[in-house]
Each structure stands twice: as C-alpha cells, then as structure tokens.
Design brief:
Organism (chains A, B): Miniimonas arenae
Keywords (chains A, B): DNA-binding, Repressor, Transcription, Transcription regulation
Shape of chain A: elongated
Largest interface: A-B, 50 and 50 residues
GO molecular function (chains A, B): DNA-binding transcription factor activity; transcription cis-regulatory region binding
CATH architecture of the largest domain in chain A: 3-Layer(aba) Sandwich
Number of strands of chain A: 12
Distance between the termini of chain A: 80 Å
Protein name (chains A, B): Substrate-binding domain-containing protein
Strand order of the largest sheet of chain A: 2-1-3-4-5-11
Oligomer: homodimer
InterPro entries (chains A, B): HTH_LacI (IPR000843), LacI/GalR-like_sensor (IPR046335), Lambda_DNA-bd_dom_sf (IPR010982), Peripla_BP_I (IPR028082)
Order of helices and strands of chain A: HHHHEHEHEEEHEHEHEHEHEHEE
CATH superfamily of the largest domain in chain A: Response regulator
CATH topology of the largest domain in chain A: Rossmann fold
Largest sheet of chain A: 6 strands, parallel
DNA sequence: TCCAGCAGCCGAAACGTTTGGGCACTCGAT
DNA sequence: ATCGAGTGCCCAAACGTTTCGGCTGCTGGA
C-alpha cells in the first residue's frame, strides 16, 4: 500500500487534484466556497493526508532543508548546542536540518557540500569548531551560506562569532567587583582570535579600573588542564603579597588545572584565590568544588542566528548584503569567586 | 541559471534522455557501445552534471536519507559520537543523515517523526540518551527502525546497547590484576539498566577471583560529582586496614568526586587508592591528575551498527527478523590504577 | 530475396506536487 | 435575448528523474 496522495483526496472529496491543492495550501488569490473547503478538508483528514515533500520540493524548487556542515560534530562537546539552536530556528520556519560532518580533507569537504547541493538544500550553515578566520570552500560558491563561529578572509559572507573580548572583560570585572586588584590571566598559547581577543578584553576591563596587566601576570600555555596547571603554578608560586588573588583562565579545562595548582600550593578556592574560567563546560564547571564561575559561549544563539539570517536571505528575492554579528558571552556565576584574602 | 539536467546532457551529447540515463546509471541489462558511453560521459563531465536527488528520490521511491531521532543531541556530550558513527555508515552506503532533536513532549516527538516520513526517509534510528528500556513512539510503526542505546519493551524492534556488565567486569578485573582485594563500587542510585548491569559485572568479576562484594563496599548516590564525593567518602573514611584500596565508580563524574574525596582525606591517587571510572568522558578523564582509567561506551560503534542494520533491512525485499546487539565497552588505561599500598 | 533476430536507441508514462491559463456556468444590466 | 463580469472549478504542463515497451535498421541464414 502506497502513501495517500493528492489524487486520493481528490477522488474521495469529488473535486480535482487542482482544487484540493488550492484548498490545502490556502492559496490567497483563489476564491473557494467554504462548503468546498470543508469537504476537501474532511477527505484529507479522513485519509490522514500529508504531502510528499520530495515531490513538493521538486515542483517548488525549494526543499525546506538546510545543510549544517562542520568538521567537529563528533569531537566538540559544544557542537550539540549550535546544532540545537540551528534546528530550533529551522523548525520554526518549517525547515529541517541535514547534518554533514566533513573530514579534514578539503576535497572531501567540497564533495560533501556538493552532495548537499544535489539534494537541493536551500542554504548552508558552515560551522567552525572554534572561533577562527577562514576562507570558505569553493563548493559553497553560489548558494546562500552563513558562517558560524568564524569570519571569512574575503568579504561577502555572513557570519556570527562570540564576543570574546566582552566575555573576558565580564570575567575580569567580576573579579574587580569582588575587590581583587592583583589579577592574572592564564592564557592559551595558540595564535587564534580567542586568545588575542580575550587578552584585549582583560586589558580593557583592567584599564577601566585604572589598572594594567603586569607582564608577570600573564602566562601562555597549551589550552588544557596541564597547561592551566603550569600557568597557574607560575603566577601563584610566590610570596603572598606578590601573588595574584584572582585568576582568569582561558578556558574551563585550564581552570581545572588552576584548581589543581592551587591545591598543590595549599591554597583554597575561593578563600585564598578566586578563579574564573571560560566556555561553561557543564561537565567541568559544575563538577568542580567549588563550582566554577565562568563565561558561557553563545553556541545555541549562534546556531539560531545563523539559520535565521540564512533563511532571511533565502526568502528575499534580491541578493541581500552580508551581515556580521557578534553575540554576547554571559557570565555564569558559581562558587569560585569571593573577596580576596585579608 | 538553473542547474544542468539530464536534458542538457542529452542535447549536448546528441542522444536521448533515456540513453543518457542508461549510461550514467550503468544499467546492467542494456547493451550500449563504448563509443556512445564515451560521448555521453564526456558531455556529462563537460557540464559537470550531477543528478537532482529530489527527482531521483521521487521516481525511485527511495530518498537515500535516513532520519536520526533523539532527545539529547544538544545535552549529551556523547551524542556526537553516535551521530558520527551513524553518519559514517550512512555515507559509506550513499545515504545522508537528517537530524531531528525531539522535545520531551510525546506528541511533538510523533509529529517530528511524521515530518521525517513525509520527507520519505528510508528508515529511522531512534536514539536514547542513555541505556534504557522504552516503547517506541507510535509514529515509527511501519517504517524500518533501529533503536540505539535502548531495548524495546515489545519485541520486533532491532536494537543495540552497550555491554554494561562486561565493561564493569573489565574495570574490576583491572583492579584485581593490580593486586587489589578490597574493592568498592560507588554506584548510581537510579534504577536504570546501567546501574544494575554494572553491579552484576562487578559481582561477576569478583566472583571469578573468589571474592564477594561486601555490603559496606557498595554505595548508591546521584550520578554526579557530588554523589561520587559522598559515596567515596563513605567507603574511604575508615581505618586503613578496612579501607578499600580500589574504587570503581559508576561514571567519570562520580570518579571526579571520588578524587575530591580522596584529597579531602589526604589520600593520594593512585598510591593510596586506585580509581576506575566509566564513560570515558575525555573532558574529565584526560584532565584529572592523574589521568583517569575508565571504561569507554561504544557510542561510535553503536551509531555504525544501527545504520548498517537499518540499511540491511531497507535493502532486503522481504521483512527481516529483528536483530539485537550488545557491543563491548573497552577499558581505557590512564594513570589512576596502581598496586595497592603496602 | 525474405525474414528472424538483435543491437542500439528512444518516446512516453510515471513518481506527486504546483500553477498558468481557461472553460462553463450564473446573474444582473441592457 | 445578449452581453460582461464574476465565480467556481479544472486541464495540462512542468519540476527532473527512471524505466517499460517499443521502434529502426542491420546482419546473416535459408
């Protein structure tokens, strides 16, 4: 038994396929008496008719499907949030998300994008694993696209990224407001936008309090627990009056390392040293003792924004100018910040 | 400019649409001279022709698309791995994955599954967030389906779950092989398959070494860091000769709590107490000092298996009997297990 | 010379929609 | 009676494939 089609509804209701289609799609121009509408709708309901979206897509030249392309779905614990945001936004507009996890290989990536285009996706969200600057794959040429968590080297591509500097400033400001004056930044050593932008944010927040970041209050290490451990050890292992009372760490994994360093030195968090992280990785931030105060990346919001602007540009007939968005990174307070000792 | 179609290739090559289709699909029955094949292929290559998959799907009554339905894409840090596995398996068979993150609401879930069916997906992977027993939503009736990380209450549904007992046994065996005799299990308190199956595994492994699990060597708490902290504290806070030298924790978050408890009591890991976790959450397991020895859940493999068996059943003409699979949970060694003290 | 058989190719229908164009009525005004 | 303007509905083409059932024209055997 095949699915029920428009024809079935037409036959049952006694009208033509055309009329049924008009009624079901509620075509504005056409005037159709209520009696007809009712009979058609009754027939459709009785048969539990739903349109075949493939046929619809073929005829309408629009699949109501958008592709989500990234190389990190499997690896990043945050990918899920952007996907979720993207999906919610798509659903709200009657579309659906097709996932494509590209390998590292550029050729493969282009092939996979073309595969999506063969399937007539209406547009594509190209998601980077972490905030970076990139040049979009060639296969994206000529189809509506939005970059997520990335800026393009060339202009002309809409994109959305987190407000790294603002987030970092919020973290430092939180420390300042608790009375801290000696504040260290345990930074990542990679040369990526997040490192430099967060450093900018730290400097801005300190400057706003008439403070500056002393060279011995800045360390750079690999962005994992071990790097955080080393960085924190460097700044904390000194006499109390020279020791920072507040630590801002590049991310939560490094903050975890900072906890370990503090423990190693016999310092308590937050009584002896306050710590703020970045990323809001639930798994870590909520598990630590005390809970880690940190800054959240707006993954969900970026996903939503990406799909929303993507669909705006699909819906609009003439070509829109690209949009560039920067979304805020809110502070998430837990228990790792207190007033400085003494 | 529209995409290039079969017609374009036909016109350029000088053959009919039919012939072009035969050549490009390499239809077995038809005899077509090489000269023709070459001309058609040249034309197709010149125009960079690729078929419109919507039209193809409509005609073939097969979309080469499979739906991945779950309620946890956003929340679970592991979802990505199953998705990745599913996607890899799908890609290997020329299909693509459509993601659908259902809400908690059952109605919504059914609607979303129907939406997938309207889009003519060939089959559906229904993924649970954690190992459980469930009854599949009504909307899945009549379409090839595989349950991932879940068993069905009714028979007739193919499904794949992790070998919880085997994984737990491996964890305890690892401790036994390092010479531990007093081993405690810091269990989760929820009544879910994972808790009872892992407990079974613990008992089996101990029994194989002629040991039993003493009541005071088993605790049950909420499955987060705090619960692990409490559980570990309970078993560890006693005189050394009664204290377990090895701890197996329900999951890595609880293991993290156990580290905290050990620290609280002045016990070093692994010199004074060895700890094994479950889940292999990189974020935690690799960040801890020392690194956490744990048991990995086969998310990726389950994803692959689900799609593979799904596509087997789609491809086979007659209805296959359901398959039930249990995949192994391998031990991942890091640094938290050593010989017991003394 | 005829015809069967076959290699090589193609027309047209079908998949399930949407939609431009138009037909057959009715009704009120002339 | 005739006309014009609506109203209510429908035919048929189109979207881009696949595939059934042929149709040609050549070859070779009788």
């Amino acid at each position: 038994m095949g699915r029920t089609t428009l024809r079935d509804v037409a036959e049952l209701s006694g009208f033509s396929v055309t009329t049924v289609s008009y009624v079901l799609n509620d075509i504005p121009g056409k005037r159709i008496p209520d009696s007809t509408k009712e009979r058609v709708q009754a027939a459709a309901a009785q048969l539990a008719y739903t349109p075949n979206r493939l046929a619809q897509g073929l005829r309408r030249r629009r699949s109501d499907t958008i592709g989500f392309v990234g190389d990190h779905v499997a690896t990043s614990p945050h990918a899920g949030q952007s996907i979720q945001g993207a999906q919610d936004a798509a659903a709200a507009r009657g579309s659906i998300l097709v996932l494509m996890n590209t390998g590292a290989d550029e050729d493969l990536e282009n092939r996979e994008i073309r595969e999506l285009r063969d399937r007539q996706v209406d547009g594509i969200v190209y998601a980077a694993e972490y905030h970076r600057v990139l040049t979009p794959p060639a296969a994206l040429e000529g189809i509506p696209t939005v970059l997520l968590d990335a800026r393009s080297t060339e202009s002309g591509w809409s994109s959305v990224v987190p407000d790294e500097a603002g987030g970092a400033a919020a973290a430092v400001t939180e420390l300042l407001e608790h009375g801290h004056r000696r504040i260290a930044f345990v930074n990542n050593e990679d040369d990526i936008p997040a490192s430099s932008l967060r450093l900018d944010g730290v400097r801005q927040a300190l400057a706003a309090a008439d403070l500056a970041l002393a060279p011995d209050m800045l360390t750079q290490h690999p962005s994992e627990a071990r790097g955080g451990f080393l960085g924190a050890l460097t700044v904390l292992d000194r006499p109390a009056h020279e020791r920072p009372t507040g630590l801002f760490c590049f991310n939560d994994r490094m903050a975890l390392g900072a906890y370990q360093a503090a423990q190693e030195l016999g310092l308590r968090v937050p009584q002896d040293v306050s710590i703020v992280g970045f990323d809001n990785q639930e798994l870590i931030a909520a598990s630590l003792r005390p809970g880690l105060t940190t800054v959240a990346l707006p993954h969900y919001d970026m996903g939503r924004w990406a799909v929303d602007t993507l669909m705006d540009s699909i819906d609009s007939t003439r070509k829109e100018r690209p949009r560039y968005e920067t979304l805020p990174c809110p502070l998430v307070r837990r228990g790792s910040v207190a007033a400085p000792p003494g």
